[in-house]
Write a structure and sequence with these properties.
Elements: H1 3-14, H2 19-30, H3 47-61, H4 65-80, H5 85-99, H6 103-116, H7 121-133, H8 137-150, H9 155-167, H10 171-184, H11 189-206
Helix pairs in contact: 1-2, 1-10, 2-8, 3-4, 5-6, 6-7, 7-8, 8-9, 9-10, 10-11
Length: 207
């Protein structure tokens, strides 16, 4: 799947939500291409970045679902670490608020996270989750696009994107998102099933 096709399908989906959202997504996606080039960052890597790259490489090669799930969890934990005690505290408070279904409070914490460290992808990802839980799909989509601009390999954001596209009846676009997800996490059987179900559904629509 080409990055251009993936970006085009995402933008075509959010156009139905209005030009403001389309502009947000367009700006986010043009700042980072969603394709395999994300696996080869330019310049020297920080130790955490180098470790994250190795984890993604291991995840892509691993075919055992149980072993792959362990690697995926390591990636999730690595992405959660911000390197800032302040941001980590805000994220912890946001998580507690989400668990208590105090979504407004969670948004307040996460808004601060994105202001303090706008390059921290997990802050945007967590905020996308809260918007989704509150039923604000356009904002969830915009934040998800921002996550993928910062970290195109973010499997959580890709899965969330696929789910939102599917919920919106965009089966072809949802399939593309799952295919992108499976590029990084091929051993995920649930994702394999989601993709296969969409392939069969789309094939049935053509007959």
């Amino acid at each position: 799947m080409s990055a251009m096709r993936f970006s085009t399908y995402l933008i075509s989906f959010v156009l139905v939500a209005g030009p403001a959202l389309a502009g947000q997504v367009d700006r986010a996606l043009t700042s980072a291409t969603i394709d395999k080039s994300a696996e080869m960052p330019l310049g020297p890597l920080a130790p955490d970045d180098a470790r994250l790259g190795r984890l993604y490489t291991q995840l892509k090669k691993e075919r055992n679902p149980e072993a792959a799930s362990i690697i995926a969890e390591e990636i999730r934990q690595a992405l959660t670490r911000s390197g800032s005690p302040t941001v980590d505290l805000l994220m912890s408070n946001a998580t507690k608020s989400i668990d208590a279904k105090r979504y407004g409070a969670a948004l307040d914490f996460l808004d601060l996270v994105t202001l303090i460290d706008p390059e921290y992808a997990e802050g945007w990802n967590r905020r996308a989750t809260v918007h989704y839980l509150m039923g604000n799909i356009p904002k969830a989509m915009a934040d998800t696009a921002h996550v993928l601009a910062l970290e195109p390999r973010h499997i959580g954001a890709l899965a969330g994107l696929a789910g939102m596209l599917n919920d919106g009846g965009r089966d072809a676009q949802s399939l593309l998102a799952w295919q992108q997800y499976l590029e990084y996490y091929p051993a995920d059987r649930d994702a394999q099933k989601e993709a296969l179900d969409l392939i069969n559904k789309l094939a049935g629509q053509k007959t």
